[in-house]
Amino acid sequence: MFTFNISPALAWALLFGAGVLEIVWALGLRYSDGFTRLWPSIITVAAMGFSVVLLGLSLKAIPLGTAYAIWVGIGTVGVAALGVYLFNEPATFMRVASIALITLGIVGLKLVS
């Protein structure tokens, strides 16, 4: 199809955007009520698609293992933190510590890539 190069800085920005969209679609699953509510369902499916597209584009400059781990990590940290904030999920010491460890893993992967 189209062939173009992506700078490393743009690839990292796209990957971050993909991670944010992963948070959006994961939260959208909750609001879509099993895909029975139209607009939350549309937003959820659109965020899923765009998230994967941005992840795929980021792979032009970031290794697959690194990109995938960071994409999932951003989603995991974001959804876990927003679960505490939006849905009153427990914020126990071990939960917060685990989220912090995932965050450190994301930062570590970025630093070595």
Write the layout of secondary structure elements.
Elements: H1 8-32, H2 38-58, H3 64-87, H4 93-112
Helix pairs in contact: 1-2, 1-3, 3-4
Question: Could you walk me through the main structural features you see in this protein, from its secondary elements to its overall organization?
Answer:
- With 113 residues, the chain is mainly α.
- The protein has one domain.
- It has four helices and no strands.
- The protein has helices at residues 8-32, 38-58, 64-87, 93-112.
- The chain is flat.
- The chain starts with 7 loop residues before the first helix and ends with a helix.
Basic shape: flat
The percentage helix is over 70%
Q: What's the gyration radius in Å?
A: 15 Å
Terminal CA distance? 28 Å
Structural class: mainly alpha
Number of domains: 1
Percent range for β-strand residues = under 5%
H/E order of the elements? HHHH
Number of distinct beta strands: 0
Low-confidence segments, given as residue ranges, are: none
Query: Number of helical segments?
Result: 4
Main β sheet profile: none
Residue-averaged pLDDT: 95
Descriptive labels:
113 residues; single chain; mainly alpha; flat; 4 helices
In short:
This protein is mostly helical and 113 residues long. Helices cover 80% and strands 0% of the residues.
